[in-house]
Write a structure and sequence with these properties.
The chain is built from 10 helices and no strands. By secondary structure, the protein is an all-alpha fold. It folds into 2 domains: 102 residues, Rna Polymerase Sigma Factor, Chain: A, CATH 1.10.1740.10; 88 residues. Helix 3 crosses helix 4. The protein is globular. The termini are far apart.
């Protein structure tokens, strides 16, 4: 996990360096940004939306988010999030829009509403998935803009809960990463898994209630 964190930190540092060049109109910065950011962004989307197996959908969402960013890099606010997280939010929004227009995705959603748990695999028949994974996916599909991040974080105030929420938004799946965030790495494997699931379930409820309240305002 330390190695992954170091890679993420290095990527964000390089992106910020190119971001500064984009702001001053460096003509080489656009292509260099794409070279560094697109593949990691596509992989991040694949990790978050594990049910999506259509490589073209993931690629298009990553490219669309990149194009939107380079047209107006000044819209990025470094006080709100890392640049890579900013790109992921935009890419998630673009991918969700594409999925809503995808007939296979719409069919699967209608079946889910009837109580059939599914994972959507483009080009194949839907197959059964985990109910907990489905609930966890809700949290990352609902938080699709910096405005919503700010809104959710007014509800989630406890530092450890925030750390877990950030990991969920980043598509993290390893229990060990959540255990570190919660400070429970010293516990048994079974107890760690129990505590992590308990925390995730609570946060999912927070997000759901927050979005319901937001919808009524």
């Amino acid at each position: 996990m330390a190695q992954l964190s170091e890679i993420s930190s290095t990527l964000n540092r390089r992106l910020l360096e190119i971001h500064a060049r984009l702001l001053v109109g460096d003509p080489t910065a656009t292509a260099e940004f794409a070279e560094i950011a697109l593949e990691p962004l596509k992989r991040a989307l694949g990790s978050i939306f594990r049910s999506v197996r259509d490589d073209a959908l993931l690629n298009d969402a990553a490219v669309d988010a990149y194009m939107e960013y380079v047209k107006a890099p000044e819209k990025y606010d470094p006080q709100q999030s890392s640049l890579f997280s900013f790109l992921k939010l935009a890419a998630k929004r673009d991918l969700l829009n594409a999925l809503r227009k995808n007939k296979k995705f719409q069919l699967a959603r209608s079946l889910e509403e009837e109580g059939v748990e599914l994972r959507v695999i483009s080009g194949n028949k839907p197959i059964r998935g985990s109910r907990h994974d489905q609930k966890e996916s809700e949290i990352v599909t609902k938080i699709d803009s910096q405005e919503r991040v700010r809104h959710i974080f007014t509800v989630v105030q406890e530092p450890r809960d925030r750390a877990v929420l950030k990991l969920m938004m980043d598509g993290e799946r390893e229990t060990s990463a959540f255990a570190i965030a919660l400070g429970i790495s010293h516990l048994s494997k079974r107890e760690r898994e129990h505590r992590v699931k308990q925390c995730k379930d609570r946060l999912i409820k927070y997000v759901k209630r927050s979005e319901e309240k937001r919808g009524k305002e």
